[in-house]
Write a structure and sequence with these properties.
By secondary structure, the chain is mainly β. It has one helix and 24 strands. The chain has one helix at 19-26; strands at 2-6, 27-28, 37-42, 48-52, 59-61, 76-82, 87-91, 94-98, 103-106, 113-117, 126-132, 140-142, 148-152, 161-167, 178-184, 190-191, 196-197, 201-208, 216-222, 225-231, 236-239, 246-249, 254-261, 270-271. It starts with a strand and ends in a 7-residue tail after the last strand.
């Protein structure tokens, strides 16, 4: 198991950052690798991002050496989203089947987690968000159909999208984690419009379902001092509480969003007018 690190940066630091510096601080690339499991420990509210692509043999984790506890889940919870072929996740011996766009919530106190694919030639792609937790909440599988669907935007502005809430107080409770998946409608390219800040929560994006030749232009920074990141399939973006977050793609794409912070009120945001961006 690999554990990378991202130490975080403040808004006063981005002026001195070149492209590689921005990517090193606010992106996580290359975690999805066949037959491997990898994580990135971030110092943005101590969220951990992870990816696993089991092929011929299952992958497993549970040791807490990298998080400073005997076991990984001694003080953590996690959401596991399947972005690939059919697969399964076992938590302490109980197996859950995950189809594409199903999400498994793993609560504090879990021991070993094993991940497998039904077909090694069309493997599952498991994406994980883990945050500190102070409560014991039962594990739960949330299927795509069980996610709460909400529509935003409009076709005329190329930002019509369907958001599914999975780990959310209205669907499946957690201690501090929120997690969902957003799909853009045909001929829409813009996500998270209008841009906004949520000073009481950080967010992580995992962009997926991009064709190899396509990219998403992800915009970040303070409203009056923006930057951009060029994102490929499977890339992850860290969005600190002080940063806007929005993007536009050159082709079809979707993304997983995960959030943590002081509250779970999805609508607790500070919108920013497009005309105010610089």
């Amino acid at each position: 198991m690999t554990m990378l690190q991202r130490y975080g940066a403040g808004p006063d630091q981005i002026d001195a950052m070149l492209t590689d510096d921005l990517r090193d601080n606010f992106m996580v690339e290359g975690l999805f690798q066949p037959g491997r499991i990898a994580f990135c420990y971030t110092h943005y509210d101590r969220m951990i991002l992870g990816a696993a692509v089991p092929t011929d043999a299952p992958l497993s984790f549970g040791d807490g050496a990298d998080v400073g506890t005997p076991r990984f889940f001694d003080a953590r919870e996690m959401g596991i989203a399947n972005l690939g072929g059919a697969g399964w996740v076992e938590v302490d011996g109980t197996r859950h089947a995950l189809a594409n766009r199903d999400v498994l919530y793993v609560g504090r106190g879990a021991g070993e987690v094993r991940l497998g694919s039904d077909d090694a030639s069309a493997p599952a792609h498991f994406y994980m968000n883990s945050v500190p937790a102070g409560a014991d909440i039962p594990h739960r599988l949330i299927t795509r159909d069980e996610g709460k669907q909400v529509e935003f935007g409009e076709a005329a502005k190329c930002n019509h999208r369907r958001l599914r809430m999975y780990i959310h107080p209205e669907v499946a409770p957690s201690c501090l984690l929120l997690m969902g998946i957003t799909d853009l409608a045909e001929q829409s390219v813009w996500n998270t419009m209008p841009p906004h800040l949520h000073e009481r929560r950080m967010e992580a994006y995992c962009y997926f379902d991009l064709a190899p030749e396509d990219r998403v232009m992800h915009f970040m920074g303070r409203p009056d001092n923006t930057r951009h990141l060029v994102v490929a399939n499977g890339d992850m973006v860290l969005s600190p509480a002080w940063s806007i977050h929005m993007g536009a793609g050159t082709g079809r794409y979707a993304f997983v969003w995960g959030m943590t912070g002081e509250n779970q009120a999805y609508g607790d945001v500070d919108p920013v007018a497009i005309a105010e961006l610089r």
